[in-house]
Amino acid sequence: MEAVVFVFSLLDCCALIFLSVYFIITLSDLECDYINARSCCSKLNKWVIPELIGHTIVTVLMLISLHWFIFLLNLPVATWNIYRMILALIND
C-alpha cells in the first residue's frame, strides 16, 4: 500500500510540475505579447481545478497513510489552493 501511495504521489507531482511549466510558458507568451490577456486567461483557467485536485489528493493520501511530515509539507500548498478557489467563487 505504501509503495502505491508514493508511486501515485510521484506521478501526480510530475504532472503538477509539468502544469507549472505550462503556466510559466503561457505567462511568458503574454509578457512578450504573443497572445492577448483573454486567451491567456482562458488557457490557464481550465487548469486551475485539476491543479487543486492534484494537490488535495496527494495531501489527503499522505494523511490517510499516516505520513505526517509529508502531509505537513503539502498542507500549506493545498490550503492556499483551496483558499484561492473559494475567493474566486466568492468574487464571481
UniProtKB/TrEMBL annotation:
GO terms for biological process: vesicle-mediated transport. Pfam families: Cornichon (PF03311). It is found in: Membrane. InterPro entries: Cornichon (IPR003377). The chain crosses the membrane at residues 5-25, 52-75. Its main location: membrane. SMART domains: Cornichon (SM01398). Keywords: Membrane, Transmembrane, Transmembrane helix. It comes from the Eukaryota. It is a multi-pass membrane protein. GO terms for cellular component: membrane. Belongs to the cornichon family. This is Cornichon family member 4. It comes from Papio anubis. The gene is CNIH4.
